[in-house]
Structures are given as C-alpha cells and as structure tokens.
Amino acid sequence: MKRLKYIRQWLSDWNAIFINELRMIFSDSGVLIIFFLAGFVYPVLYNLIYGEGVLNGMPVAVVDRSGGTGSRRFIREMDATRELDVAYRCTDMAEAEGLFMERKVNGIVMFPEDYDDRLAAMEPAVISTYADMSSFLYYKNLTMATGNVMISEMHDIQEKRFSAAGYGDRQTDQAVKPIKTEAVIPYNGTFSYTLFFIPAVLMIILQQTMFFGVSMLAGTMREQNHSFALMPDRLKGRGINRTVLGRGTAYWLIYIIMGIYTAVLIPRLFHLPQNGNPGDIFILLLAYIPACIVFSFTFSTFIRRRETAFVIFLFITPICLFLTGCSWPASNFPLFWKLFSCIFPSTFASRAFVNISSAGADLAMAGPQIRGLAAQTAVYYFLSCTAVYLENRKLKNWKLKNRKRNG
Fold it and tell me: How much is the pTM?
C-alpha cells in the first residue's frame, strides 16, 4: 500500500514538474523562437545555401609575375579543371584585387617572379592563392583545383629530373610512383560540400538550439532571483530524479518531433543521402536527444544572464562542427582534442548519422557512437541531479537565513 502511494505521489510530482516546465517554455517568446523558428528554419536555410553542393567553373584571376613555361603550363592545367575558370590574366595584384572587389572573380592565384627560376634550380616553388570566403565552396574549389594540379606538376617535374639523370622509363616510373594508387570515393564521388557538411550540421542544430533555449530559461530564472531547478520542499532529496526527469520529458517531447523533422524529413526534402534504415536513425535520436537534454541541464547551471547563452552559442557551434571530423579527420586529432570532443553529444551523433544515412551503416556499425551517447547521458544525468541538489540546498540555506533575520 505504501509503495502504491509512493508511486502515485511520484507520478503526481513528475507530472507537476513536467507541466510547469512546458508552461515556462511556451510563455517565453525567445525560447519559442529558438526551439521552433530556428529549429525549423536552420535546416532549410543551410540546405538552400549549400543546395548544389558542387560549384563548377568558378572564375579566378591569375597574376603571373614569372611568365615562364612552368607557370603557363600550371595555368593551362588549372583552367582545364572542373572547379576553376581562369577568367582574367592580370599584370599585377592591384588589378586582380579590383576584379575581386567587384565580384567578377571569386579567387586569385599569384605566381611570384622566381617561380620558374626555382624550378630550374631544383628548389621548391611557391604560389599564393586567395579565396572569397563568403562561401566555403569558393575556398574548396580553389584549394582542390590548385592542389590537384600541383600534384600532377610535381610528378611531371620528378619524371623529367630522373630522366635527365639517366634513369630509364621503367626506373623513373618506379621512383616517382612506386605503388600505383587509385582514389575511390564511394559515398561522395563528386566531392559535394552538401553531402559531407549538412548531415553533421543537422545533428549540431538539435544540440545547439536545445542548449540555447535551456540556457536562456536558466538565465531568465536567475535574473528574476528564482531557481532554475524548482523542487517542492516535500520531495526532499528523493525528489531530485523527479525534477530532472520531469523537466527532461518536456524537452524530449518537443525535440523528438524536431529530431524526426531534422534527421528524416529534411534529407527527403533536399535529396540528401538516405542509405540507412529510418528505424536505425530513430533509435539514434532516442539515444541522442536525452544526451542533449542532460548536457544542456548540466552546462546551463553556469549561466547567470540570459544574453550569456547567445555568446556561448556562437562560440561553441564552430568548435562542435570541427570536432565532428567533417572538416578535419578525427583520426588525426591530437589526444587533447579527441578527449575534448567527448564533451559534446553532437560529436558522436554526427558521426553516427553520417555513417547510417550516407554510408548505409546499421546500428552495429554505429555501436561505438551509440555507446558514447549512452555514457554521456549517464554522466550528465548524474551531474544534472547534483546541480539540482546543490541549487536547492543553496535555496534552503537562503530561506533559513531570511527566517532567522525576520524572526
């Protein structure tokens, strides 16, 4: 009988905290904008901006101060690439910069005066590239095209030097390219920026909008001298779980819908890769969203002002994107960054989502990321409960001091 009464009381308290948290969310216009407007618009906006994913024939200006055969050959090969179109050949940097400022070109390639002389002297030669960073596609095109031409030129130069040294054709081939390799890119053969960037961003949007909204509410409560973790006095220590679970359920109810919209509907609307099982993606969301909730609860305890959340949001987002490994291979991270990346749920979720949706992996192959999210949920849940306990202990001490003063 006592156990049944306890369960009823537990559910009643949980429901009261759950309803109260929903009321706070829907009474704050700023949080509604972040959760719903930003949550719905950001995935669409990113797909519209990077919708094509591939940019062909980007116009560039070339400044050839060397004027030798080596620089002219490099320019011809660069113009023949899919990524670049040598639209202008300028006499100096001032002319090229003028075209750049007029938006007639999106990049500049400059060959120094000693380019051919250094090649003739068998010394390393350097070229300078400048890209329009209003879109990362411009930078990608310029870097990929010049890099591929540079590798091709390097092989040609090495072959000529070995031939001049008396090596035969077979010996030259073995020296320049001892192992024949062929690049095979099964999941992104066109090097589409959208295919490797957007899936990671979709997962980050869920985490960051949730963290921003939860932190805004916590900052608002503190500005109004209220607790971010309200717990009725009758619950005492045993009510901590009810407080965290009640609040968390409110966010889970909202973000399971946002997660399905972001991870399932958006890829269908914008024809992103969908090689995985939708059921596996849903299970990933079931692991990811609770991790984001308790992550937000934990770090929102440090928010003292409402506007602080915005500054942290802007600061953390690019870091989270970098740590997913979409811009730099995670295997090449130093140990510090590998450990630091484990702080954010988006690190595991983005990698798992890319593996499932783009590469067609199943849950077994995404197992390490799922286990990482489960571990984060456990750790951050404990920290969230600790934060609630310390916050309410602080409030009780403050109430006792006020009673003594008034008494």
Answer: 0.78
